[in-house]
Amino acid sequence: MTVAGIFAEFASALRPDAVPEAALHGARRCLVDWWGAAVAGAVEAPATVLVEALAPGGGPARLLPWGDGADMRTAALINATAAHAVEVDDIYSPGLYHPGVAVIGAALAVADAERASGADLLTAIIAGYEVSNRIARAVNPAHYRLWHTTATVGFFGAAVAAACVMRLDAGRTAHALTTAASFAAGLRHAFASDAMTKPLHAGRAAEGGVLAALGARHGLTGVPDMLEGARGFGVAMSEAVDWDAAVAGLGVEWTIERITAKPYPCCGHTFAAIDAMQAIIGGGVAPGEIERVAVGTYRAAVEICENTDPSTPYEAKFSLPYCVALAALNRPVDLAAFAREGLHDPELRAMMGRIEVALDARAEAAFPALRAARVTVTMRDGQVRSHRQPTRRGDPDLPLSDEEIGAKFHMLADPVIGAAAAAAIAGALWHIDALESAARIPVPGRAG
């Protein structure tokens, strides 16, 4: 059987009663986390740009945060773009991948349109995560050298999730998967500036997954071995992919139980260094005592987040010196920390000038299984304080609690839709299995 066929049989047969409670709970956490990210990003470009450009004008699926109607492809595109826009979306670390943005963006749009139950929505999310996380893990880290995994593998997760909500059989689900393989694209060079391309990658993956599933529903076929074939996805976009390992344990080991929830609204490659700096400051080091700071971390973090002079909020979110300086000054690393008006704060810039970033061999050896960093602070009196952070806060080995996930949701959603509306949504999401229709997840409406 082809790899797509194995994944399709698993996804098409999955039902809520076949999923262990730990995986179901993990999916609820992901849904709450995604919704907060989408609400916060929905009022920012490029989501607002897409709404203006596409003028959705009604349909059975809903755009966040106000519930305006759209067709399912447009809703998937815009909502998933929004969820990736402010850099707070979830991560599957072994795959160098943000699964939620595309998977949930696609699943929700189709569930709205199909009036699928909350339990079916949750099951589709789990299927999309399980298939796409395993593909992401299989093709990386080689894939990530050039490709944005969320932009590429996101198509597979979205296609599977959409197919599950539509209740496609295994054959049609396989066609959706293999069709999505030809859509998969998105260059990592999109990280190089604050252009709007990167969040759009997530939206296109969600939209493309819905398109692939819709096509398969009506008879559109894909090449069966598009994942493992001689000129297929694995060969074209990675090296020596072990597809047997990718499908091993499917339905027994649940990757959705091993998802990172971001504690900070910036690039995840900065987190271990932020955590390490916070530990040093929490140990009694005053910011004014700091002479210089050495940050050692893995290669991807150095390459992607080495910017020493960020001039936009986006660039600051991808700057290790900026993010570590916030922690060194004992400032919260929250949305306000990346507001444009604070980017050139003199005290912050002075601290950034004391920070050097370099490759740490031990952190590089642990990557991508772990995201580690070592921060060493030399103080004005010559004393040295050092802290190695072996994993990030929010990672499966150091997870956020449900209460922290909920607090993050309210931090993101309350300023946009108000505390009361946010509380109603959160209540529905934490008990999504009980809803007869996912379309009954409350949204505030423009009058709210």
Descriptive terms for the model:
single chain, 448 residues, alpha+beta, 2-methylcitrate dehydratase PrpD, 60s Ribosomal Protein L30, Chain: A, 4-stranded mixed beta sheet, 19 helices, globular
Average of per-residue pLDDT values: 97
Distance between the termini: 52 Å
Question: What is the count of DSSP helices, taking H or I runs of 4+ residues?
Answer: 19
Q: Tell me the domain tally.
A: 2
Structural class per helix/strand content? alpha+beta
Q: Looking at the structure, what is the overall shape?
A: globular
With strands numbered from the N-terminus, the spatial order across the biggest sheet is 4-3-5-6
CATH architecture type of the largest domain = Orthogonal Bundle
CATH class label of the largest domain? Mainly Alpha
Query: How many strands appear in the DSSP assignment?
Result: 6
Helix and strand sequence: HHHEEHHHHHHHHHEHHHHEHEEHH
Residue runs with pLDDT of under 50 for 5 or more positions:
none
β content, as a range?
5-15%
As a percent range, the share of helical residues equals 40-55%
The major β-sheet equals: 4 strands, mixed
Classified in CATH, the superfamily of the largest domain is 2-methylcitrate dehydratase PrpD
CATH topology category name of the largest domain: 2-methylcitrate dehydratase PrpD
Rg from C-alpha positions? Answer: 21 Å
